[in-house]
What does this fold into?
Amino acid sequence: MDRLSAMQIFSTVMECGSFSAAARKLNKPQTTVSRQVKELEDHLGVQLVLRSTRNLVLTDAGEKYLASSREVLSMVAEMERDAKGEYQEPKGCLTVTAPIIMGRMHVFPLLAEYLKLYSDVSVKLILTDQNMHLYEDVVDVAIRVGRLPDSELVAKRVGEVQKILCASPGYLAQRGIPQNLEALASHDCITFEGLDSPNHWRFTVNNEEQNVPVNSRVRANSTDIAVHSARQGLGIARVLSYQALPWLKSGELNRVLQPFAPEPYPVSMLYIRQDVLPLKQRSFIDFMTPRLQATFQRISEDWQALTN
It folds into this structure.
């Protein structure tokens, strides 16, 4: 048995939370992953993990062995990176994900600047409005909007954005401007699968959550489509402020029901906690953090000027 490989598999299983997720990340059959952990337990003569249909729970021996395994694997990875020169200069492929409109408008221009500085780094940029799993999808850095659950991920806050309702002046002239949340039931609405339900929108009124029924005329899985549907006069869209800001400034879209806007959502840059980050990842984070913070500061100032 290759004990170093078994340590890596065991550590990955616990990081991912299941044998199936670890198998996908390692690109190995699930039966192989499960067998390797069992062989490791047989070799050590102890049970490392308690298995159930819903989750995996470490035994006391498993907790100690996992901590020691991660130290060993970290040392080996450091030796390999040093041998490959990753500590001499940034190099290798970096996988980055961001929301579609944010990625196109704000992340990619900065990314292009970064690549001009670091010629030995290549980037796989994945623009999606669905949250990717950093472990399972092997993502180095994710730029994400929304409140974050507690996890082992490191989060650097770079700004904040508002969730708003907007529609075209033509639509509002024809159908009227809603004056309260109940009025939304008589309007055509444009819903985005990643932000709200297609059947109701949730608001907080007097510190209480309220589900408001809506009629989805357009259901989109891209905020691009949601924003442009609103511009075409197809209904009221609920999107994030930066997504609609250019058209709010130009007058192609108008905000509605402003008093019911929720608290701003944070924008964060996420990555997996490691003892030592590869230089390609560290250089990217150090480059992007102040520039994204400046970008969202400008967006905030434009938003304040628009709403005051």
